[in-house]
Design brief:
Length: 263
């Protein structure tokens, strides 16, 4: 059982929904980013998604793209992202960390080395948005063998014919993208999301977490109400972009988490 599996088991026992927060590792700089990440569990975050900065983020809107650029310009690397997870683990051995990003940095490091380093650093799962199920032998299967969850994205365009393929080797949870398009581009609507979540849950026992387009505590509550939890990324990253103090950012996150937990 991974930390992700244990977290969802605990949430089910408490009849609570999950709140997942995404931040870009190294944005705006390593030390500030580590302070934010370290503070997330205290703000009510159940699972942390730690973005791996990359030069060509095809699925991300301007907010996340700019966060990646800031991180890279501040000297963030894949190694420093692993170091950040390792530093976090010195004070927290329970909160799951999912690394989210693109395959190129992992490929450049070498899959076997990356998986060994990720496991040692305390990473629990991976979301690699540009590796489809047809490429599972590339990273997904080795990751599962190494004890890491491999989390897949499902979208409004994932029809009933495609869905079984998407779910085939997915573990940890399913990340349902609530809108078509890039991150931060539109607002998620619970009325649209609910039937899609139900359709996915008919095909899998995995939790279904919904992300993209959630910006307020009320939206987090509404979306978590029709799913197993909610993810917020761009709205949090926007707070970082605006240069707000760490305490203020964490207060904002706490409001979002409280919304999801009310569901």
């Amino acid at each position: 059982m991974t930390r992700i599996d244990a977290k969802f088991a605990a949430l089910r026992a408490e009849n609570r929904k999950a709140f997942v927060a995404y931040v870009m590792a190294g944005d705006p700089d390593y030390d500030t980013s580590l302070d934010i990440v370290t503070g997330l569990p205290g703000a009510g975050v159940d699972i942390i998604e730690l973005g791996m900065p990359f030069t060509d983020p095809m699925a991300d809107g301007p907010t996340i793209q700019l966060a990646g650029q800031r991180a890279l310009e501040a000297g963030q690397t894949l190694q420093k992202t692993l170091d950040m997870a390792r530093a976090f683990r010195k004070g927290d051995d329970e909160t799951p960390i999912v690394m989210m990003g693109y395959y190129n940095p992992i490929y450049n490091r070498g899959v076997d080395r990356f998986l060994e380093d990720a496991k040692t650093a305390g990473i629990d799962g991976l979301i690699v948005v540009d590796l489809p199920p047809e490429e599972d032998e590339e990273l997904c299967i080795p990751a599962q063998k190494a004890g890491l969850n491999f989390i897949r994205l499902a979208t409004p365009t994932t029809d009933d014919k495609r869905l079984p393929k998407v779910l085939q080797n997915t573990s940890g949870f399913v990340y349902y993208v609530s809108i078509t398009g890039i991150t931060g581009a539109a607002e998620a609507q619970a009325g649209d999301v609910g039937p899609e979540v139900a359709r996915i849950k008919d095909r899998t026992d995995l939790p279904v977490i919904v992300g993209f387009g959630i910006k307020t505590p009320e939206a987090a509550e509404a979306i978590a109400g029709v799913a197993d939890g909610a993810v917020v990324g761009s709205a949090i990253v926007k707070q970082i972009e605006e240069g707000r103090p760490v305490a203020e950012i964490l207060d904002y996150v706490a409001g979002l988490a409280a919304g999801a937990h009310r569901a």
